[in-house]
Amino acid sequence: MEKLLGWDEILPGACLFAFGEEIKENVAQTPRDSRKYSDNNSHQAHVSDWRVTKPVFNVDHCINCQFCWVYCPDMSIISKDKKMIEVDYDHCKGCGICAEVCPTPVKSLMMVEEFKSEEETLAAWPEKKKKEAK
Amino acid sequence: MAKKYDLQEVEVLDGNVAMTHALRQAQVDVLPAYPITPSTKIVELFSQFCADGYVDGEFIRVESEHAAMSACVGASAAGARVATATASQGLAFMIEVLYQASGMRLPIVLCLSNRALAAPLNVNGDHSDMYLARDAGWIQLCSFEAQHSYDLALMAFRIGEHVDVRLPVVVNQDGFITSHTAENVHMIPDEKATAFVGELEVVNSLLDNTKPITYGVQTEENWHFEHKARQHNDLLESKSHIKKVFEEFNEKFGREYKIVEQHKVDDADMVIVCIGSTFNTSSLVVDNFREKGIKVGVIAPRVLRPFPYEEFAEALKDTKVVACLDRSSPNGAVGMLYNEISGALINNEKTPIISNYIYGLGGRDVTIELLSSVFNDLTENLKAGKLTHKVQQMLGLRGPKCEYFGEKG
Amino acid sequence: MLEIRWHSRAGQGAVTGAKGFAEVVSHTGKEVQAFAFYGSAKRGAAMTAYNRVDDKQIINNEKYMEPDYVLVLDPALVMSDSIILNHKESTTYILGTNLTRDEVLEEAPFLKGKRIHTVDCMKISLNTIGRAIPNTPMLGAFMKVSQMLPIEEFKEDMKLSLKKFPQKIIDANMDAISQAYGEVS
Ligand code: SF4
Ligand code: SF4
User: Fold this and answer.
1) Segment A31-43 mean pLDDT
2) Which of B26, B98, B255, C118 could bridge across to B197 with cysteines, CB 3.0–4.6 Å?
3) What are φ and ψ of residue A92, in 5° steps?
4) What pLDDT, in 10s, does the model give residues B275-307?
């Protein structure tokens, strides 16, 4: 339950701090789970229960174009050194934009029902079309 | 010819949808708009009506609210019947052109689903945008419920477009509370509604090639004042015409509107002055207090501009204690209603004890309990024969008590 | 005055359900109100919608409500104690869940001693309408529990308010209402 502050307690300026304390280290180099986000940070707000379907990532088809990373409205595509790594299922709301924009001929991201496991989804992934012989 | 819309006598509609039916029945020629919560539905539905053939007019997608009002100005000067809808930041972005529209005497109708102004960002209802526009030279009508939104939007065209008035009209409704609450709305059949609004009488059309004309000329110190004085005069005089339209509406459709709306004010010792849906909830509270034999009442302007000084002075001439409730942050002053009501009463023989409450900002719930607490304060003031607290208080705010202006007791 | 609070996720049709219900009830000559709490109500976020029904015009605009009925559309929300907010002794709950009454009480002990009914409106909506919009089946269940209107009369009126939809969808909704009416316990 969020604590509701009085008018004399709030931080003037409609401001909220992103981190709980002053940042001394290079945040970009700090693993996400070790960053000291403040309680107000939207990183602390999980929206996984908003999903009806979830995106599943298949590394075999991915060309690392970064479209999904650019278009995801909730920064839930984790990419490092221009390589797509995984989906952040705590913050993914299941909107399906990433799968929509994924340009590979057979999608590298597919939206599947929330209850389906990653293994069974990957096992049932559509096959790449073989190049037809001339 | 636009298609007739199949309406039941009573529809369950929210304020936005009800207003859009009024725009459709008025057969608006041009509606330029840039949708914004909580007025979006008006824009969405009107464009749907256009697409489905229920309106012959045009919906214009523009790139901003500033452009929306600019397009309204152009279309209206050309001789079209024009309307748009907005809220909050959208209205703020329109402000410059609002003054242009009224200065050019263009009878545009603006549906305003009142919403708070950022920062902090907030999509819910308060009267910040209504207050922001109040000196822009527009006639301002206030709805308390979806039925009023519909009726007032229809009447707005009749009021603004009259050749003696020729002024733009804002129809205010409380964002979300009225704009998004579906309730029983009595509908007027298309033919009757359209006939009531009538044809627009085109005045000095920009497109009349026999009499080319310029709108919005430059005037400096030797002309400007006269133009502004004429506008102020005509805005004040529009009141008599507004009354006529209200009367005609009542005769035709049996729903009564007054320049100020009152509930049990006549013999009341204590009265709340407020705007919008709070009037309705307050009426309920008034009835509760009346059951206990406490003589209270509530009064609200139906017409905020031109401001009904005379009507308030008359209605509150015997009232002993008055609370003015402003749903907009006054930012360094007393609230607008406190100022206006004090101004209206100051020349009466007797003046009541007047206090000011700021309430409901950003959609904060206006509960029966809170409104009852106001009447409890007023009862204390009545007993003491003077203010028992400072002039201005915040109602329903967290934190230590906030009160300003004047000494205690 | 009859007051109802709906709990659902944005996208499950609580607002549409509340409005549809209001429309149907208005045909019986009653005065109605239907509204919702909108925050940044993005699809999937928990939200509440409200109805008031009375014989005279409803002028109360406060959002605060002590509901006579609480209708919960989303199975996960059944477990959240937000559904008992501002409840009174007579508050009746209709819970959309695949669990039995006992299973619900086990998972959500705060409901013990309360008047609860269960119906799997999610399953019914998937089976009939083919999508997870459990609002119409919930209304079927509500008609059974509240005995507000005879079910056939309710369905006829509901058909009217759905008239802009294709016949197939109307039929599916009617099926959903009947099933929920029969299954709620
Ligand atoms: S489904 Fe939407 S929120 Fe989730 S990763 Fe894809 S784009 Fe982001
Ligand atoms: S859009 Fe598709 S191909 Fe491009 S990086 Fe994302 S998953 Fe890989």
Assistant:
1) 86
2) B26
3) -75, 130
4) 999 999 999 999 999 999 999 999 999 999 999
